[in-house]
Amino acid sequence: MQNESIFQYALIFCRTARLHRRRAGLALAKIHRMANADLYQPRPEHKFSFGLWTVANRGRDPFGDCVRPVLPPVEAVKLLGEAGAWGVNLHDNDLVPMDSPPAERDRIVKAFQAACRDHGIVVPMATVSLFYHPVFRDGAFTANDPEVRAYALQKTMQAMDLGAELGARIFVLWGGREGVETDACRRADEAVKRLREAVNYLCAYNLDKKYGFRFALEAKPNEPRGDIYMATTGHYLGFIPTLDHPEMVGVNPEFAHETMAGLNFMHGVAQAWEAGKLFHIDLNDQMPGRFDQDLRFGSANLKAAFWLVKFLEDAGYDGPRHFDAHAYRTEDYEGVKDFARGCMRSYLVLKAKAERWNADRDIQAILAELAAAPPSLPATGAYSATGAAALLRHRFDKDAMLKRRLPYERLDQLTFDLLAGIR
Ligand code: GCO
Ligand code: MN
Ligand code: MN
To answer: 361 pLDDT exceeds 80?
Structure first.
């Protein structure tokens, strides 16, 4: 009898304990979920920004008309505020229609500034449309018509005035029309000279007006032109040191653009960073070999997006993380909000994964092994005559060198497992 009641008591105890364990487990999972939700929640310090032209994109393409109604700039700012973004960027004519009378311009700007204040949104970057109006059909700064070139300068100076008024400190120049369908139209080095002249002029205007802009030049290989002169970020990195004020000018690499050119985007970003020239960045996604897709960040090339985020975070890049992408043509504006939230969320998920990667013992052990050097190896950091003599004397044991393992297969699989969420 006594044994039975002890047994029953034990049974009840076990059941209660199980229940508690389950409850504790559920509570833990909830805490975990909440912590993660917070981790993936965009905050101002993440500096997530979107172009007005991205969330207000109406889904028109060369084959089909708009699928979404006009989204006025103040509405776009509201949408971004609700989605949790930090900043909004704009072309001059995203906000102020071309040739608006001054009073109308000022009214539009005031209303926009009020919307930014209401929704806690800043304007970190401004740019200029030198591609939309048909007058730029042969380019802007590189056009053959000197009147078009002068007009492009005037339009850019006015866009700088607007950007400065809105508090922007970065000015992006994207020469989408600076290119050719036929090289019969001009010498390609003449185009480089014209571009240099224009950027020099704008730098001088920046100094004259004391705007304090940093220019960020954005490359693209093609689209809308058959070929665009400054095809890659690397082209611009070669061009910048030839300017009158190279310190004032950097780059704005875009994921889609380098991917369209078949390049490794992160490598271009890393070179720009290393040169102190990563003034801005355009994040989106793109399948290689396709038209310019401007997909949601991280949606097409998960691994490439991971290496990029890891690079930016490890390097300590603290500029804006700008999404130059747009929602699928199938979406309404609720879907556009999902798109904007998705860009930021994916970045933050990959940022958390990068932290995990850096803390992973197995990964770190492999990296440490890879970096190890034999103590007898002569130093080659800086040249000296004695150091060079020691290096010339040194006998390299190539057999031993070949025996050192390079476990990149394992390293990559560990990365895959980590990204797939099973590590
Ligand atoms: C594109 C470009 C543009 C520029 C923008 C800023 O492929 O259309 O990426 O979106 O980034 O014009 O200058
Ligand atoms: Mn683009
Ligand atoms: Mn861009």
So the answer is: yes
Structure tokens at 41: 């929640």
Helix locations, 63-218, DSSP H? 73-83, 92-95, 102-119, 146-165, 188-208
What is the model's pLDDT at position 2?
47
Contacts of 18 (CB under 8 A, 6+ apart): none
Q: Specify whether the CB–CB gap between 83 and 48 falls below 8 A.
A: no
Could you give the domains of the chain?
44-359 (3.20.20.150), 361-420 (no CATH)
Q: CB under 6 Å to ligand 1: residues?
A: 127, 172, 174, 176, 218, 220, 254, 282, 292, 324
Instruction: Tell me which residues are annotated as active site.
Output: 91, 94
Q: How far is CA 32 from the centre of its chain?
A: 29
Q: How far is the CA of 142 from the centre of ligand 1 (A)?
A: 18
pTM exceeding 0.85: yes
Give tens-digit pLDDT for 64-94: 999 999 999 999 999 999 999 999 999 999 9
Read off the DSSP letter of residue 211: -
Computed from CA positions of residues 171, 324, 64, 339, in that sequence, does the dihedral angle turn out positive or negative? negative
Q: Is the peptide bond before 241 cis (omega within 30 degrees of 0)?
A: no
- The residue whose C-alpha atom lies closest to atom 9 belonging to ligand 1 is 324
Q: Using DSSP, state whether 212 is helix, strand or coil.
A: coil
Measured between its terminal Cα atoms, the distance across the chain in Å is 51
The single-letter code of the amino acid at 81 is: G
CB 208 within 8 A of CB 245: no
The CA distance from 321 to 38, in Å, is 19
